[in-house]
Specification:
With 399 residues, this protein is mainly beta. The protein has one helix and 30 strands. A hairpin with a 3-residue loop joins β19 and β20. The termini are far apart.
């Protein structure tokens, strides 16, 4: 028995370093998944045929050549359903705008149109899901309204159950803020409300959402968003900001709103899962000091660690890198990195947080950058692929 115990102790001593190495991400750690990436594009006045797909390996950063996954008109925003079986796209076409549902063929990644419904507004530009995956939210830019569509078991979209029209005081930019312009919609953590960034109104508006009925409605009189402003449950931004997209901090303690027209990020504190104060605690430029000329901020994203925030600039054609202070949520500009092309309308951080993929709309390229995990800084990886007019990327884990 003593010899057996000594033998077991010896085995433990020999294998412990290997186990520790694996835990620290050494050679014995399990390899990362590969992903299929879908790319939304503009087809009008371009060579694009619709939605493209390519293979992405987060271990190496290797991207395969892009192929057409499904032909459709102006799919400028695409999202994959949480179950991985369906993909949804907008069809940004003025008064003829629509929303399309596709089935995903698991092996090839090809898309099959399931159905298509009018978007109930003009120029849809953003899609998201409620927390149950039973409803699809649509932001219609030109008409300034948002819609909720039920998702059926077979992936098809059913007739809309929720519709809300943004209203309020317009911003001072007469060319871009001549009316309400819904540009982003996402649900709260509790799934009892949605937030809508409206570029024309200089506000992020909160609507109630009924996750059973799928309805959208105005804020209650006793608003939990802004207790001091009972009838106006919106986060107000500096006049002329033009809020485009927003992102929530890891843990939901802050909301960061990207202002397209003035190239800024405005930070708001969140209280609980749904609540916020009216006043922001920081407003910071996405541009380097001394920059002059035309610029439209386009996309905002948080690194999976929550340590870094990124925004894209069209005009300056860069990605701005911000460090997020752990205790305060305040942002510090770290660097500006050229995207290697023109008009980076969108970029995506891969699910592992190793790489950032910048889509240069007017250069027809997707340029890859490696993310430094310590500083958040970006370095070109050397990987670039061609896609006509790329404007959105979403990832799907390979089976």
């Amino acid at each position: 028995m003593k010899n057996l115990r000594r033998f077991c102790s010896l085995i433990t001593l020999l294998t412990a370093p290997l186990a520790l190495l694996a835990a620290r991400g050494g050679a014995t750690a399990s390899p990362a998944k590969t992903y299929r990436a879908y790319v939304g594009t503009y087809t009008a006045k371009t060579n694009s045929k619709g939605i493209y797909e390519f293979e992405f390996d987060p271990a190496t950063g290797k991207m395969s050549a892009a192929q057409v996954a499904g032909e459709t008109k102006d799919p400028s925003w695409v999202v994959v359903h949480p179950n991985g079986k369906f993909l949804y796209s907008v069809n940004e076409a003025g008064k003829a705008s629509a929303v399309s549902a596709f089935g995903i063929e698991p092996k090839s990644g090809k898309l099959t149109l399931l159905n298509q419904l009018p978007s109930l507004g003009e120029d849809p530009c953003y899609l998201s899901f409620d927390k149950t995956g039973k409803f699809l939210f649509v932001a219609n830019y030109t008409s300034g309204n948002v819609v909720a569509f039920p998702i059926l078991a077979d992936g098809k979209l059913s007739e809309p159950t929720g519709l809300a029209k943004n209203e309020g005081t317009l911003g001072p930019n007469k060319e871009r803020q001549e009316g309400p312009h819904a540009h982003w919609i996402e649900p709260s953590e509790s799934n009892t409300s949605v937030y809508v960034a409206d570029l024309g109104l200089d506000r992020v508006i909160k609507y109630r959402f009924d996750a059973v009925k799928g309805t959208l409605s105005g804020a209650p009189i006793h608003s939990d968003w802004a207790p001091s402003v009972k009838h106006d449950p919106s986060a107000k931004l500096v006049s002329g900001t033009g809020p485009r997209h927003a992102i929530f901090a890891k843990g939901g303690m802050q909301m960061y709103v990207l202002g397209e027209l003035q190239s800024t990020v405005t930070a708001f504190h969140m209280v609980g899962t749904d609540l916020s104060t009216v006043a922001s605690f920081q407003r910071i430029s996405t541009l380097p000091e001394g920059f002059s000329g035309r610029n439209d901020a386009a996309e905002i994203a948080m690194h999976p660690t929550g340590n870094f925030l990124y925004t894209s600039n069209r005009g300056n054609d860069t990605v701005a890198i911000f460090k997020v202070e752990a205790h305060t949520g305040r942002l510090q500009l770290v660097a500006e990195v050229p995207t290697g092309g023109k008009e980076p309308r969108h970029f995506a951080i891969d699910p592992t947080g190793h790489f950032l993929l910048a889509e240069n709309q007017l250069s027809d390229t997707i340029v890859e950058f490696r993310i430094d995990p310590a500083t958040g800084k970006l370095t070109p990886s050397g990987e670039t692929i061609s896609v006509p007019s790329p404007v959105c990327i979403t990832f799907l884990p390979d089976e």
